[in-house]
Amino acid sequence: MSTAAAVRPARLSLTDTVRVGASGLSARPLRSLLSALGIAIGIAAVTSVLGISASSQAALIAQLDSLGTNLLQVQAGQTFGGSTSSLPLTAEPMISRIAPVQVESSVATVSANAYRTHYIPSGETNGIQVKAAKTNLLQTLAGSMSEGSFLTSATENYPVVVLGDVAAQRLGFDHWIPNSLVDIGGQEYVVAGIMSPMPLAPDIDRSALMGYPQATKAFGMSSAPTTVYVRTSPDQVDAVGGVLPATVNPPNPNEVTVSQPSDALSARIAANDAFNSLFLGLGAVALLVGGVGIANVMVISVLERRSEIGLRRALGATKGNVRNQFLAESLLLAGAGGVAGVALGIIITLIYATTRNVQLVVPVSAVAGGIAISLLLGGIAGLYPAIRAARLSPTDALRSV
Amino acid sequence: MTAVVTSVQPDAPSDAVMELVGVRKTYPGPVEVLHGIDLTIGRGELLSIVGPSGSGKSTMLHLMGTLDLPTTGSVLIDGVDVATLSDRQLSSFRARTLGFVFQQFYLIDGVSAVDNVANGLLYSGVALGKRRSAAVAALKRVGLGHRLYSPPAKLSGGERQRVAIARALIARPAIVLADEPTGSLDTQTGQEVLSLLRELNGDGTTVIVITHDPAVAKAMDRQVTIRDGLIVSDVARTLEVAR
Description:
Helix content of chain B: 25-40%
Low-confidence stretches of chain B: 1-13, 239-243
Largest sheet of chain B: 6 strands, mixed
Largest sheet of chain A: 11 strands, mixed
Number of helices of chain A: 14
Number of helices of chain B: 8
Helix content of chain A: 40-55%
Number of strands of chain B: 10
Order of helices and strands of chain A: HHHEHEEEHEEHEEHEHEHEHHHHH
Mean pLDDT of chain A: 88
Radius of gyration of chain B: 18 Å
Structural class of chain A: alpha+beta
Order of helices and strands of chain B: EEEHEEHEHHHEHEHEEH
Distance between the termini of chain B: 34 Å
Low-confidence stretches of chain A: 1-6
Radius of gyration of chain A: 35 Å
Shape of chain A: elongated
Number of strands of chain A: 11
Strand content of chain A: 5-15%
Mean pLDDT of chain B: 86
Oligomer: heterodimer
Number of domains of chain A: 2
Distance between the termini of chain A: 37 Å
């Protein structure tokens, strides 16, 4: 009579399966917490490694973008005979006639040393170079002043210097004091300001810069530049780089060296990637250990809960219901561990980003991948115990207490 | 072989809810526990299976509860031979047709009394809200209206068994199999449980109580006594009660 209806098995809804799995976990909170922790640590390691590298790369890329990749640096190279050549006086006017060149500036080395006072022994030069600079150097290098002001068309005619970041430190300027003096070639120079670090021109950081007219007046320097900095339209960088040697020194183009300072920054971005794979490997090992931990806990759980399995079978649970219950437990454990791990990874990345003063970047692939990998691990770890639980015969399960 | 000493069959055996025909059960060893049981249980009976330990009572319970299959012979429930059903179909049978009360309660730790009872409807495809409200009603019926949200660990032995009985009642099964249901209750609570089972029987449910306690067995309308895997007596006391 009612047999046909009674024989049709009811399906357990997904929410019921999850609820049953969750109740199994909440009955043993400490054990669940500890076994989820293994996965959490692995996922946190992977997420934070990816997050930290993405954040620092984003910072490098942002720096590169703000500095621009369209800066070229022109220097005198070597002659065929091996002696140091110099750039001709006409270099700058010739360069500025190349159509895609937006702006160019130059520095020239002055054969003098800078000291804080004339009492300093002349040997202690601190590696600081004295250079003459054009007033548009700061603009060309996309640099900025930390304090004070750069050389102007007025101050370039007088004993006034601007210090690079490193040079200022080595001369003992923690910060800029207006009207403070340094000694260059036995003459006192007023420090007009201190520049911020210039990643594209590290040698400027270690220099004291004065105007060309003052350098010519005081040291009899010829006004031929040592280094010319050239900004071009971004899409013409290679073309300009190709014609620069012949433009600068038509008789001897081989004596001119052209380089692109942003190459160094690009190399740093690439170097980061190689380093990451090591930490990702460590994260993967942690994940594997976490997965084994979950499998272990699930096997023990099935052994301990034989009577519960028997009871559920008596209440009408099919083998599939029992299998799904334990699989759901394992997935919930691993999933919770994965979510906690991603959260922890983001927090670690946030701490890194805040202390290093870079923007927080967490790749979506790290978040989604972290959770997906933990669920996959949970599924694999839970499958064998779940199948064992399902295979248990109801009478054996009920007898075993 | 089927040594039926006394056989007083109830009046309506044609409407049998459960039939055991030549049932033998052999466990690996080999040990034969049941030596050929023939038993017909009519719809709406209140029946006890009584016997000393080792007589094969628990094996009978497992076979009648479709938790295990006979080695030879057949168990028919509602005219269906359970050996012909798949595991999924048997599970469904248990969920809707059979209710179990075990001596050891088998309550799930860390789950409140209400949710333990609601589990009795979990595998019948009933929604959570209905399961919970039915569980509250069932718990009130067994006198545990004040213990709805207590975990099993905070209940006394008697209270735990009443929770387990509420769980067996909740799905309103056609047959309730009770394995020593009063085994861990005091006399008064035991009487309450027996009258509860009797009340359930009054609603048309077939109640089968498996016990070693002759006092409990005598409270039932029909007593089947087994010893060493054979039915030794089968007595209805309907007339005595009526007298």
